[in-house]
Design brief:
199 residues, alpha+beta, Beta-Lactamase, 9 helices, 44% helix, 20% strand
């Protein structure tokens, strides 16, 4: 993908209109995507940047405040659906049939540990225990390397059409997120600041 000056100016204008808080910019962009996808109170979208064999969350949106809260500050690249998508040749991992954690917590914990190496204590501490998860690796704008992951989650089983989400991620929405990652990288807060903000 070639980045035109017009696209960069558009993003810089968008950033200026949102104000200066890095996390607010991401919240607003992901909110627009959630509205386009007709997401509701059972759904959430998060974006994670890859660096040093781990992921850090740069943004998250859910209409439910309790699902909008950040989780861990660092996510190991060898764990979870995030890690599975990252390692996958296709750059994706889609799961729509996780057990109901309310009715079968042990089955939920067992599957998360067996398939994605997520320790039970990590899963139990998660603010959201999704039954549907779709994670897609994002390529940098030069298409030379993966640099981030976008994750769609829902507390409902069978919630997503993987093909529809993949079209969004490989189309305009994904390109905008990649450009935003690159334009905002110089404004990215320190890990300490992010931790103070709850990320």
């Amino acid at each position: 993908m070639t980045t035109s000056k017009d696209e960069i100016l558009k993003l810089q204008s968008l950033i200026a209109s949102f104000g200066t808080d890095y996390f607010d910019i991401w919240t607003k962009r992901l909110q627009v995507l959630a509205e386009e996808l007709k997401f509701d109170g059972q759904d959430r979208i998060s974006v994670y940047r890859y660096a040093d064999e781990a992921f850090t969350m740069v943004g998250r949106f859910s209409v439910r405040p309790e699902l909008n809260k950040p989780g861990r500050s660092v996510y190991p690249a060898n764990q979870g659906v995030i890690g599975a998508a990252w390692r996958s040749g296709e750059g994706k991992c889609v799961v729509t049939d996780l057990p109901d954690p309310e009715a079968a917590l042990q089955a939920y914990l067992d599957r998360c540990e067996a398939e994605w190496q997520l320790p039970n204590e990590v899963v139990q501490a998660m603010t959201m225990k999704p039954r549907s998860v779709a994670a897609f690796a994002l390529m940098n704008s030069q298409k030379t390397a993966r640099n981030a992951i976008i994750v769609f989650e829902s507390t409902a089983a069978g919630r997503f059409s993987a093909a529809m989400l993949e079209r969004r991620v490989s189309g305009g929405s994904g390109k905008e997120i990649v450009l935003l990652l690159e334009v905002l990288q110089v404004h990215e807060p320190s890990l300490e600041y992010a931790h103070d903000k709850g990320f």
